[in-house]
Amino acid sequence: MKINRDKFFNIKQLKERGWTQSKINSWLKEPDATIANPIYRSASPSKLFLIARVKRQEKNKRFIEWIDKSKSKRQKLSKTLKEVNANKRRELIMYINSLNITIPKMSYSKLTKLAIEHYNDLWHSRGRYEKVATALDDRAFLNRICINMLRHEQEIYEEELYNLFGKIGKEEGYLILKEKVNSEICKIYPLLFEEIS
User: Fold this and answer.
1) Is the dihedral of CA 89, 94, 99, 101 positive or negative?
2) Quick one: which H or E segment has residue 105?
3) What is the DSSP-derived secondary structure letter of residue 32?
4) Least CB-packed of 27, 57, 100, 150 within 10 Å?
5) Cα atoms in the Cβ-side hemisphere of radius 13 Å centred on 97
6) Alpha-carbon distance 79 to 124, whole Å?
7) Per-residue pLDDT tens for 131-169?
């Protein structure tokens, strides 16, 4: 028998309306129809519940009281979660701002030579032999690879990038960390930032 899907809600749709699995089990009980799982044929059949029956249940005083209480709990939980996340973000940014960044001092010529070696070694290790830097390259490009090398050769920078993974505020934290390191580089090598667009 062909089932008219427009007359039914599936479990996902019920949950989008605020139902929980336990309330589906206790108040709707058995499904009105089942169909083969549309994604995984070997999985359990998808349960369908008549829209008319669901909406009747949703008008029930007991359901209305429960859904209102449930929404109130979710809103409180959401507010608490937002506050916790905001605190974690603040703590992360304070921590990044407290980091001590030390940039090595050397001549611009030595720095450029090291940056070229670093760039070529990096791309060579990735099998990209066509990407080669030389001392004859455009100054803006050489400045950029010098900054990149100084930033990524900072043990604390690489370590903190790793530590940021999966943390709340990681995107903002990454930008602040990068800016903090760049700022320290600029204090020692201001010329590197002059020709970068």
Assistant:
1) positive
2) none
3) S
4) 100
5) 7
6) 50
7) 999 999 999 999 999 999 998 877 677 777 777 777 777
pLDDT the model gives residue 196: 58
DSSP string, 72-103: HHHHHHHHHHHHHHHHHHHHHHHHHHH----P
Q: Which residues contact 94 (CB under 8 A, 6 or more apart)?
A: none
Q: Can you tell me which residue has the tokens 């939980």?
A: 77
194 close to 188: Cβ distance less than 8 angstroms: no
Q: Six-digit token pair at 90?
A: 């603040």
Among 74-78, 149-153, 169-173, where is mean pLDDT lowest?
169-173
pLDDT tens by residue, 44-63: 888 999 999 999 999 999 99
Q: Where are the beta strands (DSSP E) in 45-194?
A: 46-50
Non-local CB neighbours of 26 within 8 Å, separated by 6+ positions: none
